Amino acid sequence: MEEFGAAEWDGCTRRARSNYPCRVKYVIIIADGGADKPIAELGGKTPFDAARTPNLDRLAAVGRVGAARTTPPGFEAGSDVCSMDLLGYDPAKYHTGRAPLEAAALGLKLAPTDWIFRMNFVTVGEGGDAGLMIDHSAGAISDAEARILAKDLVAHWRMTVPELASDFALTSGVSYRNILVDSRSHGKRKYGEIKSYPPHEIPRRPWREHAPAVKPGAGGAEDVAGAVAMNKLMQVAGEFLPRHEVNRVRIAAGKRAANMTWIWGQGLRPNMPLFHERFGLERGAMTTAVDLLAGIALLIGWEKLDVPGVTSYHDNDYGAQGRATCEAIGRNDIVCCHVESPDEASHQGDWKTKLATVESIDSLVVGPVAEHLQRAHKDDWRVLVLPDHYTLVTTRKHDPAPVPWMMSGKGIGPKVDAGRKVRFTEAEADLCKPMSEGYGLMELFLRGTTEDMARWA
To answer: Which pTM value belongs to this model?
Structure first.
């Protein structure tokens, strides 16, 4: 099966733009980080392969399974890049950094010259683990605890490094996630040539070796000043946070302390066209627990669904998320349900929980959504299920391998020559050559004909 790229999709778009009227309903279900490599404890299977997924199995049997490269050349495999890509936006054109996407979800009014950063509360090692990045989420710290730490940290910065604190503003997000903005960097600091690492990509590795630094052979004095500022704020936080009352209480309760901050993912405000301008569907919505995806949704003109009980972890109310998706279908042309928990389980190296997240997504999201579509919209619907990227339990890190996808519904149809049971697994997807430019996947999902499908799966 030969690959084809964006140039050929332009012709497909013009040919297929009016294939289906707006009465067709489209649903995307993203199992964040759900793809994996074989795991020994699962008998050499992946969580998708080992899990009980009767609803995914039924959809795959009458649909198509394929693969797509959601990590373009020159980018790292992260939810910012990969989610933007699978939603139909080429990161090479629209990606300016991870933090600006999250800032959009918080409703921050930012100038085009403001530099925006993600700041995690993290756990770094002590004793025998000294110098290692232990936990990118500070033990899944609660919103309330994180907000107290953020408020008191800003006050401490103002006392100890007032020359920096006056230029930076800190806004709390969800759990360990925060947004830091340098609104007065002009003429003093630049950050475009600074390499910063996601803390979840350096588990149990020496964090000092991955601290923000100017890229070799790049940048100038202003970039050096930017790196110095990032590291200084982290250093002061690392001196202040370990003795904070919130952390003393957490340690007494057997929880991990938020004993340092990690600043990364910097960028400027992006400029993304609205989804209806790109694809012709007027109304869209998304349910997600994380600001990153919520920010993308808002930037492309989708409604962010407020669903109580939705979290980033396996305590997520999958049923509520499934019901919210079903309820939103009637008033929208396209609805996206993003579930973060498989990714978080992978980052903790917890294969048991990852397996459970996949089964919960199948039973409480995929099943109810498929049943609702069939009952309320007869044959006028399409469903796309996929992870944004691989997250490996064995390494606790993201991986840029092409992700598996499954499409089912109107005009898709199964392979007539399959001659075997087709399931939504990495192995099944690997039988196909991946779509070389993942942002073409959205056009295939929305407008692709049976002939188009046959080229990919």
So the answer is: 0.84
